[in-house]
Target: Xylose isomerase-like TIM barrel
Amino acid sequence: MNQPPLSNRDQTPSGRDRTRSGPSPRFGRRQAIAGALAAPLAAGVLAPKAPAAETTARSPRGNRIAVSTYSYWRYRDDSKLTIEQCIDLAAETGFDGVEILHVQMEDESNATLQRIKQRAFRGGLDLCGFSTHQSFVYPDAAKREENVRHTIHCIELAYALGIPTIRVNTGRWGTSKDFDTLMANKGIEPRLEGYSDDDGFAWVREGLEKCLPTAEKCGVVLGLENHWGLGRTAAGVLRLINEIDSPWLKATLDTGNFLEDQYAQYEQLAPEAVFVQAKTYFGGGTWYTLEIDYDRVAKILAAVDYRGYISLEFEGKESHATAIPKSLETLRKAFA
Model:
């Protein structure tokens, strides 16, 4: 550490510190011999040791476990709770944080945002993620620009809530009749006639790049999720992350959205992950049930030193009152 210079009062014209005087006349022979014998010992104790070769990595701690407010709702008419109700339940259950689903919010006024933030703080919870929806896969530039504005608005909401990352999507072609049909086809749908995937990726890249200045200004990382459309595979997500090459665009890894070669795709996406969403399906999945070995997932994430949040997205038919505590127990055990 740099030390402040000695004051003029404490220095001689030559720059020598006048407070460091020579031996006192009373400094006898016995004291001189004792000092000479002690010097090598002091040098051995005080001299910094050469750094030892690093043989092991840092000891990892368990990942913190959050819950998405989606887990309490799941788009069911009979279980849509307010964000504050979800925060209270998360605190009672023993989670470390909460991920907010944007479309679940009923009020975006600043007063409400600050009340939500205070509610989480008093419950001992981090607001750690903000799950948003957008699509840039439109031939119409005006539609893409509308989604850019929406995403920038979501970044600013996350900033006001103190949330460091938001989930973003590529979007999809929109040629499926509805979401149920898309799920029945395992997330695969035909392209718009006359357009290619390269066209779609160019539109997504353009849209995300327009959002990045706001993300950087607000300190909010965009986490591009493997969430159907052009981001259905790890390769699709990584293509955009690598082409854009910004520290403010990384990945949100959803364990429930790889329907083929899931563990190989987890391994591909894990090095870029800043947030992980962990699906469970107690009572059977809403659209499908995916078998996920969370011990294996934990090892994949540990291999790339992922230390961020694991956010539960319960997507089963069982009551959230019983399924969410069981899900927490599963994730705590795997990511301890």
